[in-house]
Design the sequence.
């Protein structure tokens, strides 16, 4: 996993109930190539979003982010697009697990803290301190603690690299 404690990025705001069809439209599910999928993230809601974002940017959303179908394409596309993390007040459970399985950092913040973040704010995640730093507003927001095993998955880059590492250690 990239060192998110040094990543700065711009906040891109979305509302509630952002489903996987909004993240990556079903018409692109004929490929599992993350780099190709990345070119089409949020296309149906923000047009050419891929060319608007920069590596390290953050998606900030309200409740139930990643609802809808259980496809792994959605978190994979976000990760490959260079999104540092998705911050939301809650995540659909299957998206939550798929995000960690693909190595995408997701953080649950209080809804009141999500509301304080504006589109364009410069953000940074400090995993060691368990905070999101809003450099624009000079505020810090705490987030729900990430379970230790999920941190292991993130540090390995996702479930497949984690399993490969475990197998190598057993040989």
Sequence:
């Amino acid at each position: 996993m990239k060192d998110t404690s040094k990543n700065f990025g711009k906040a891109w705001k979305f509302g509630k109930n952002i489903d996987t069809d909004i993240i990556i439209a079903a018409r692109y599910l004929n490929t599992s190539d993350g780099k190709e999928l990345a070119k089409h993230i949020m296309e149906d809601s923000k047009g050419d979003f891929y060319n608007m974002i920069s590596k390290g940017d953050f998606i900030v959303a309200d409740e139930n982010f990643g609802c809808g179908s259980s496809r792994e394409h959605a978190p994979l596309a976000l990760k490959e697009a260079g999104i540092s993390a998705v911050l939301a007040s809650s995540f659909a459970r299957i998206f939550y697990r798929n995000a960690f399985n693909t190595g995408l950092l997701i953080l649950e913040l209080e809804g009141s803290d999500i509301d304080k973040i504006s589109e364009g704010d410069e953000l940074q995640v400090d995993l060691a301190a368990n905070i999101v730093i809003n450099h624009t507003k000079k505020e810090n927001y705490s987030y729900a603690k990430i379970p230790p095993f999920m941190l292991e998955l993130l540090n390995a880059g996702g479930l497949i690299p984690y399993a490969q590492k475990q197998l190598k250690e057993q040989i």
In short: Strands lie at 8-13, 58-61, 85-88, 105-108, 122-126, 131-134, 139-142. The chain has nine helices and seven strands. Residues 1-5 have pLDDT under 50 and may be disordered.
